[in-house]
């Protein structure tokens, strides 16, 4: 499964919806390559700092001064008790070997393996309180269906900060266990 262009003209990871119910979906994601950076601190500070590091890279802050197409979503995952990983998906057809070398040594390339995820979409400013509430509701949805959370929550942000709150696409997701 490769990335597809289907959100406001931006490529995103390909997924298939297995089922949808009560505002949530079960999705099967294909493998995709990301550039990621680990940041310490609170969630809001980490996403801002991580976004800046990765944006510099794709806008030419690399050994070849080469620009890389923007994709969606910007992903944020918890790492340990006080850390976060911020990710940009790399365009389909690129590999760690064909991407320009980052000027910032904190950036690493990771192939995200295929995964089955429960995902809930919502609008609004992605404050920590809103993300926590959406995560809790999705976790209850998962539990009510007898599914098992393997990892998460993950946060996916699709729109620029200039997008009006009610027009923003945000998602919370959990990777599901098998069976």
Write down the overall geometry: globular
Strand order, largest beta sheet: 3-4-9-11-10-6-7-5-8
Unreliable stretches: none
Query: What's the CATH first level of the largest domain?
Result: Alpha Beta
Order of helices and strands: EEEEEHEEEEHEE
Mean of pLDDT:
93
Number of separate structural domains? 2
Structural class comes to alpha+beta
Q: What would CATH call the homologous superfamily of the largest domain?
A: Regulatory factor, effector binding domain
Total DSSP helices: 2
Helix content, binned percent: 10-25%
Give the termini separation.
22 Å
Protein name: SOUL heme-binding protein
Pfam families: SOUL
Word description of this protein:
Helices cover 18% and strands 40% of the residues. The chain starts with a strand and ends with a strand. It has helices at residues 43-58, 128-144; strands at residues 4-7, 10-12, 15-21, 24-29, 32-40, 74-79, 83-89, 108-112, 115-122, 149-157, 170-176. The chain has two domains: 12-29 and 114-176, Regulatory factor, effector binding domain (Multidrug-efflux Transporter 1 Regulator Bmrr, Chain A, Alpha-Beta Barrel), CATH 3.20.80.10; 32-112, Multidrug-efflux Transporter 1 Regulator Bmrr, Chain A. It has 179 residues and is of the alpha+beta class.
């Amino acid at each position: 499964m490769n990335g597809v262009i289907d959100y406001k003209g931006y490529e995103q990871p390909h997924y298939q919806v297995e089922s949808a119910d009560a505002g949530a979906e079960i999705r099967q994601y294909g493998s995709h390559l990301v550039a990621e950076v680990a940041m310490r601190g609170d969630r809001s500070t980490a996403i801002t700092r991580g976004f800046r590091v990765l944006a510099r890279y794709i806008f030419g802050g690399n050994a070849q001064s080469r620009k890389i197409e923007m994709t969606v979503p910007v992903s944020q995952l918890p790492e340990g008790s006080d850390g976060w990983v911020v990710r940009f998906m790399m365009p389909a057809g690129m590999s760690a070997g064909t991407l320009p070398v980052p000027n910032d040594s904190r950036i690493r390339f990771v192939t995200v393996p295929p995964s089955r995820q429960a995902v809930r979409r919502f609008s609004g400013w992605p404050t920590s309180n809103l993300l926590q509430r959406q995560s809790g509701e999705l976790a209850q949805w998962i539990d009510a269906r007898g599914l098992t959370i393997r990892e998460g929550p993950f946060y996916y942000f699709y729109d620029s900060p200039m997008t009006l709150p009610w027009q923003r696409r945000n998602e919370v997701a959990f990777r599901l266990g098998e069976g």
